[in-house]
Specification:
CATH class: Alpha Beta
Largest sheet: 7 strands, parallel
CATH superfamily: Aldolase class I
Structural class: alpha/beta
Number of strands: 12
Strand content: 5-15%
Radius of gyration: 19 Å
Number of helices: 15
Oligomer: single chain
Bound molecules: S-adenosyl-L-homocysteine, iron/sulfur cluster
Number of domains: 1
Strand order of the largest sheet: 2-3-4-5-6-8-10
Distance between the termini: 44 Å
Shape: globular
CATH architecture: Alpha-Beta Barrel
C-alpha cells in the first residue's frame, strides 16, 4: 500500500490517494498527515487565525432537513428573530473587539420582506461600521436576483454548504420535494460564484449512509468548483429530528472527530490558499476541537456573537457549546487559546487568497 509520506509529496491527489488518506487508522500516519497540512498552511496562509463573528439572527426556517434541530417540523423550538437594532448592537461589539468580519446566519426564508430586510441591514451595517466589517451571508437558497441585490448592497461573502456532493445521498438526507433539491442547491452555489461573492461551501462528515468514497468526492467537488472558503464539520445528532434513529449506527464520536480533521488536512493539501473554518461542531465533540482543526490546516474561527438569550433556540445539533455564555467571555478565552497553540488572531480582513487570485485572473 502506498505510504502517507509518498502521497503527501504529490501535488495532485487521485481519488484513490484521497480514499487512502481518509481511511488512515494508524495514529502516526494521522499525525504525519496533519503535520504536513499544517506546514502547507504555515507557508501559504500563515499561522494567523481569522475571526468571523457569527450572528444567528433567526431560527425561522421553511425547510425540513432531516438532520437539523431547527427544521420547520420541530415544534419544540421557540422561534425567534433578532430586531435590526439587536443585530446592529452586535456588529458594534464586533468592531470594538477587533473583528474584521461577521457572518449573518439564519434558517431559510425566501420572500420579498426577508430579501428587503437583509438588503437594508447590509446597508445599515456598512454605514454604522464605516465599512470596516466584511459581511458573510449564510441564509440558504435564494433567487439569482436576491443574491445579486445583497451583493450590490455590500455583502462580500456567501456560505452555502452543498452538504454532500452526492445527489443520491442528498436525497436520503432531505425530504423528497422541490424545496429540497440537489440541483437547485448546486445552481445556487454557481450563481453565488458567478455574481462575484467569495464563495463558501462545505459538507457534513459522518452522516448516516455516507461512505468514505462520498467524502473523497466531496473534496474533489470543492476543488473542481474552485471554492474560496470551506466550512465542514462532523454531523452531530439532534434528539428531535428524524435522523436521531440512526444514532447507534453512526461512526463513534472520536472517529468522526479524527475523520473531520483528516478532511481538513487533505483539503489544505489540495487547495493550499483557501480559507478553511474550524467549526463549532468540532468544539462540540471536545473542548479543544477547534484548536485541533486549526492544527490540521484550518485558519478561520467563527465565535458565536448571538445574544445569550437566543442561543438555546439555535441548536442545529445537541450539546452545542457556549450556549450559556456571553460573547465577551468567549472571546477573552479565545485569544489565550490561540496563543497556546502558537497561532495569533489576525487583524486584517483575511480575504481568501484563492479568491483574490481567481478574481485577478478573470480581470487580466
Ligand atoms: N439555513 C442555512 C444556514 C443555517 S444551517 C442553510 O441551511 O444553508 C448551517 C449549516 O448547519 C448547514 O449547512 C448544515 O451543514 C449544518 N447543520 C445542520 N444540522 C446539523 C447537524 N445535525 N450536525 C452538524 N451540522 C449541521
Ligand atoms: Fe433550515 Fe438550514 Fe437547518 Fe436545513 S440546515 S433545516 S435550511 S436551518
Amino acid at each position: 500500500m502506498i505510504s502517507v509520506t509518498e502521497i503527501s509529496k504529490k501535488t495532485n491527489f487521485s481519488k484513490e490517494d484521497i480514499i487512502r488518506l481518509l481511511s488512515i487508522t494508524d495514529k502516526n500516519e494521522q499525525k504525519e498527515l496533519l503535520r504536513k497540512a499544517y506546514s502547507v498552511k504555515d507557508k501559504t496562509v500563515g499561522r494567523k487565525v481569522y475571526l468571523r463573528g457569527l450572528i444567528e439572527f433567526s431560527n425561522l426556517c421553511q425547510k425540513n432537513c432531516l438532520y437539523c434541530g431547527i427544521r420547520s417540523a420541530n415544534a419544540k423550538v421557540t422561534r425567534y428573530s433578532l430586531t435590526d437594532e439587536e443585530i446592529l448592537a452586535v456588529t458594534e461589539f464586533a468592531v470594538k473587539n477587533q473583528f474584521t468580519g461577521i457572518v449573518l446566519q439564519s434558517g431559510e426564508q425566501s420572500n420579498r420582506d426577508f430579501t428587503q430586510r437583509i438588503t437594508n441591514l447590509i446597508t445599515r451595517i456598512k454605514q454604522a461600521t464605516h465599512h470596516e466589517l466584511r459581511i458573510t451571508l449564510s441564509v440558504g437558497e435564494q433567487s439569482f436576483n436576491t443574491y445579486k441585490e445583497w451583493f450590490e448592497a455590500g455583502a462580500e461573502r456567501y456560505l452555502l454548504r452543498i452538504e454532500t456532493s452526492s445527489e443520491e445521498l442528498y436525497r436520503k438526507i432531505h425530504p423528497d420535494n422541490a424545496l429540497h433539491s440537489f440541483k437547485t442547491r448546486l445552481q445556487c452555489l454557481e450563481n453565488i460564484q458567478q455574481i462575484g461573492y467569495q464563495t463558501g461551501t462545505g459538507v457534513m462528515i459522518g452522516l448516516p449512509f455516507q461512505t468514505i468514497e462520498n467524502l473523497a468526492d466531496d473534496l474533489l467537488f470543492i476543488k473542481q468548483m474552485n471554492i474560496d472558503m470551506v466550512g465542514m464539520g462532523p454531523y452531530l445528532e439532534h434528539v428531535n429530528t428524524p435522523f436521531f434513529i440512526y444514532k447507534d449506527s453512526l461512526l463513534p464520536i472520536n472517529e468522526r472527530l479524527n475523520l473531520s480533521l483528516r478532511m481538513i488536512a487533505i483539503l489544505r493539501l489540495l487547495m493550499p490558499d483557501i480559507n478553511i473554518v474550524a467549526t463549532t461542531a468540532l468544539q462540540t465533540i471536545t473542548p479543544m476541537g477547534r484548536e485541533m482543526g486549526l492544527k490540521a490546516g484550518a485558519n478561520v474561527v467563527m465565535p458565536n456573537l448571538t445574544p445569550g438569550k437566543y442561543r438555546g433556540n439555535y441548536l442545529l445539533y445537541d450539546n452545542k457549546p457556549c450556549i450559556d455564555e456571553d460573547a465577551d467571555e468567549c472571546i477573552n478565552c479565545l485569544a489565550n487559546r490561540m496563543k497556546m497553540i502558537g497561532e495569533e488572531i489576525a487583524n486584517d480582513y483575511g480575504d481568501s487568497i484563492h479568491f483574490t487570485q481567481r478574481k485577478n485572473r478573470v480581470v487580466m
